[in-house]
C-alpha cells in the first residue's frame, strides 16, 4: 500500500510539473527525446532512400494474410493497433478501448516503385517523411504531399489530405489509383475506379469504417530540386480574396498557399518548381536546423516589403510547417523561435505531435478542449470572405492557413463518395484554424457553442469539416454534411461491417473522444 501511495504521489508531482511547467518540461525532457527519435528516423529514411527497405510483393501478401485472419477470427469491433498518441487528432477516440486491435503498424514498407508508369505501391503506415526521402532523390514526388512528416498514407486516405498543389490535383484520395482492403468478413479486395468503384469512392473520408486498408497504389510525378516562391503581401481583405482566387484558378502555379495574419493582412504565396536557383531571388534553405519558423519568416518579410521572390529546396518547402507544427509549438514553447533555442536545440527538432500528445495531462486536455481550437473547414471559394469574417468574430485566432483544393465529385455523380463539390464549382479553400482565441474573445468563449456556430455556417455554405478535428454536430447535422446513402448501403451489403466497425460519426463526435 505504501509503495502504491508513493507511486501515486510521484505521478501527481509529475503531472503537476508537466501541467504548470509545460515549456520547461518540453525544453529539458521532450527536446532530447525528440532528438534521439529523429536520429532513428533519419537512419530509417536514409536506408529507405537507398531501397534497402523495399519489400517484395510476396512478403507484403504474407503480412496481409495475417491481418485477414485476425479480422476474420475477431468477435465484435476491430480497429488498427496504432497508438492513440501517434494519431494526428488532438483527442483520443473511445472506440479504441472497445475494439480488438489488429496489427497494422508493421505495414510500413514500399513494395513497388514504378518510375516508368509513374506509380508506387505502399503499405498504409508509410508516412510523408518516408515518401519524400524515397522519391525526391529519384526525381519524383507525390502530386500532393501533405505537410507533416508523420502523416500516414492510410490516415490520409481514410481521413483526408491536402497540400498546396491541391488546386490542381485535388485531395489525397484523388491521386490514389487502387486500394487494397481487408473487409469485415476477411475478404481481401483491390478496388479501383473500374473495379468496385462504389467501394473505391467511399473509402476516402470513411475514417476506417469500411475495412482495413493494407496497400495503396499512388500516382507519382516528376519534380525539380527547388521551388521558386513568389510572396505578395496584401493589406485589404477584398483585394486579397480577388488575387487569391485568381492564383488558385491558375494551374501554371505548382503551389498556392496563403496565410492570414489578421483580418486585413495576408501573405499570398505562389510557387513553381525550378531546376536552378535563379538570380531574381534569394536562396533560402528554410529546413536548416537553426532556421526561423517559416510562418515567422513570412511575417517578417511582410513587415519589410510588398513582394519578393525566394528559392527554397523542394524538401524544405514540403515540410515548411513541420518544425513549428504550423504555429502550435510557439504556444507550448514560447521561446522556440529565439536564436539561442534554434542554435543550441534546433538540431533536435521537430518534436512530434505524438510526444506532445503522450505527455499531455488531464488538466491540459481540459484546457485544450475549453480554450483552444483546432479545426480545418473546407468551403467553396465564393464563400471564403464570409468564413474569414465568421472565424474573426467567433475566435480571432491568427495566423490562419488557407490552402486551395479541387473537389471533383459533383452532387449529380452516381459514385460520388462521402463528399462532393458544387455542381458549378469545384474550387474550395481549406481554412485551418489552430490556436487560442484572442483575449477579448476568450472572456466569453464557449468552445461547444462557438464551434457549433462555425459548423452551422460551414453546413450552410455546403462546406466540409475535416474528420481529425473534434465534431460538435448532431448525427443528423453530420449526415447533412456528408452524403451517407452509398456508404450506408455498403455497410449493409458487406457482411459483418456493422459489427466490426463503428459509423464515422461515432469516431469523430466530441462526446466519443477524450
Ligand atoms: C496538428 C495537425 C496538423 C495537420 N496537418 C495536416 C496537413 O498539413 N495536411 C493534411 O492534409 N492534414 C493535416 N492534418 C490532418 C490529417 O490529415 C488527418 O489527421 C489525417 O487523417 C491523417 O492522420 P494520421 O496519419 O495520423 O492518421 P490516423 O489518425 O492514424 O488515422 C485517421 C483515420 O483513418 C483510419 N485509418 C488509418 N489507417 C487506416 C488503415 N490502414 N485502414 C483503415 N483505416 C485507417 C483511422 O482508423 C482513423 O480513423 C493535421 C492534423 C493535425 C492535428
From TrEMBL:
SUPFAM superfamilies: FAD-binding/transporter-associated domain-like (SSF56176). It is an enzyme of class 1 (oxidoreductase). PANTHER family: 24-DEHYDROCHOLESTEROL REDUCTASE (PTHR10801), DELTA(24)-STEROL REDUCTASE (PTHR10801:SF0). One of its GO terms (biological process) is steroid metabolic process. GO terms for molecular function: Delta24(24-1) sterol reductase activity; Delta24-sterol reductase activity; FAD binding. One of its GO terms (cellular component) is cytoplasm. This is Delta(24)-sterol reductase. The chain crosses the membrane at residues 21-41. It is found in: Membrane. It comes from Palpitomonas bilix. Its EC number is 1.3.1.72. Pfam families: FAD_binding_4. InterPro entries: Diminuto-like, FAD-bd_PCMH, FAD-bd_PCMH-like_sf, FAD-bd_PCMH_sub2, Oxid_FAD_bind_N. Keywords: Membrane, Oxidoreductase, Transmembrane, Transmembrane helix. It is a single-pass membrane protein. Coiled coil: none annotated. Residues 47-223 form the FAD-binding PCMH-type domain.
Amino acid at each position: 500500500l505504501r509503495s502504491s501511495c508513493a507511486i501515486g504521489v510521484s505521478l501527481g508531482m509529475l503531472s503537476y510539473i508537466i501541467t504548470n511547467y509545460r515549456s520547461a518540461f518540453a525544453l529539458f525532457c521532450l527536446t532530447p527525446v525528440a532528438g534521439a527519435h529523429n536520429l532513428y528516423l533519419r537512419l530509417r529514411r536514409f536506408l529507405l532512400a537507398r531501397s534497402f527497405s523495399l519489400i517484395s510483393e510476396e512478403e507484403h501478401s504474407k503480412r496481409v494474410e495475417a491481418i485477414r485472419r485476425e479480422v476474420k477470427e475477431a468477435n465484435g469491433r476491430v480497429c488498427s493497433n496504432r497508438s492513440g498518441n501517434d494519431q494526428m487528432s488532438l483527442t483520443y477516440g473511445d472506440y479504441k478501448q472497445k475494439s480488438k486491435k489488429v496489427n497494422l503498424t508493421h505495414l510500413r514498407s514500399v513494395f513497388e516503385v514504378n518510375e516508368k508508369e509513374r506509380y508506387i505501391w505502399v503499405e498504409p503506415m508509410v508516412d510523408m517523411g518516408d515518401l519524400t526521402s524515397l522519391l525526391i532523390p529519384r526525381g519524383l514526388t507525390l502530386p500532393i504531399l501533405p505537410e507533416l512528416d508523420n502523416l500516414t498514407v492510410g490516415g490520409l486516405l481514410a481521413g483526408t489530405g491536402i497540400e498546396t498543389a491541391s488546386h490542381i490535383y485535388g485531395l489525397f484520395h484523388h491521386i490514389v489509383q487502387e486500394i487494397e482492403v481487408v473487409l469485415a468478413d476477411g475478404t481481401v479486395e483491390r478496388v479501383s475506379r473500374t473495379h468496385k468503384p462504389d467501394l473505391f469512392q467511399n473509402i476516402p473520408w470513411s475514417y476506417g469504417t469500411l475495412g482495413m486498408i493494407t496497400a495503396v497504389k499512388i500516382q507519382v510525378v516528376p519534380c525539380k530540386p527547388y521551388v521558386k516562391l513568389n510572396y505578395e503581401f496584401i493589406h485589404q481583405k477584398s483585394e486579397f480574396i480577388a488575387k487569391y482566387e485568381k492564383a488558385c484558378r491558375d494551374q501554371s502555379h505548382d503551389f498556392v498557399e496563403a496565410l492570414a495574419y489578421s483580418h486585413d493582412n495576408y501573405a499570398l504565396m505562389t510557387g513553381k518548381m525550378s531546376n536552378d536557383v535563379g538570380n531574381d531571388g534569394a536562396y533560402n534553405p528554410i529546413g536548416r536546423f537553426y532556421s526561423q519558423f517559416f510562418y515567422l519568416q513570412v511575417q517578417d518579410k511582410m513587415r519589410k516589403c510588398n513582394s519578393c521572390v525566394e528559392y527554397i529546396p523542394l524538401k524544405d518547402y514540403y515540410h515548411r510547417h513541420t518544425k513549428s507544427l504550423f504555429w502550435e509549438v510557439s504556444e507550448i514553447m514560447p521561446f522556440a523561435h529565439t536564436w539561442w533555442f534554434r542554435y543550441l536545440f534546433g538540431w533536435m527538432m521537430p518534436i512530434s505531435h505524438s510526444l506532445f500528445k503522450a505527455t499531455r495531462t488531464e488538466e491540459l486536455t481540459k484546457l485544450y478542449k475549453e480554450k483552444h481550437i483546432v479545426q480545418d473547414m473546407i468551403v467553396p471559394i465564393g464563400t471564403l470572405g464570409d468564413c474569414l469574417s465568421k472565424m474573426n468574430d467567433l475566435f480571432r485566432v491568427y495566423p490562419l492557413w488557407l490552402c486551395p483544393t479541387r473537389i471533383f465529385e459533383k452532387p449529380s455523380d452516381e459514385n460520388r463518395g462521402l463528399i462532393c463539390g458544387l455542381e458549378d464549382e469545384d474550387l474550395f479553400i481549406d481554412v485551418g484554424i489552430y490556436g487560442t482565441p484572442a483575449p477579448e474573445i476568450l472572456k466569453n468563449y464557449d468552445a461547444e457553442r462557438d464551434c457549433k456556430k462555425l459548423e452551422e455556417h460551414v453546413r450552410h455554405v455546403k462546406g466540409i469539416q475535416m474528420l481529425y478535428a473534434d465534431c460538435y454536430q448532431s448525427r443528423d447535422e453530420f449526415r447533412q454534411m456528408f452524403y451517407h446513402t452509398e456508404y450506408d448501403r455498403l455497410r449493409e451489403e458487406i457482411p459483418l461491417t456493422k459489427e466490426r466497425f463503428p459509423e464515422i460519426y461515432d469516431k469523430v463526435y466530441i462526446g466519443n473522444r477524450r
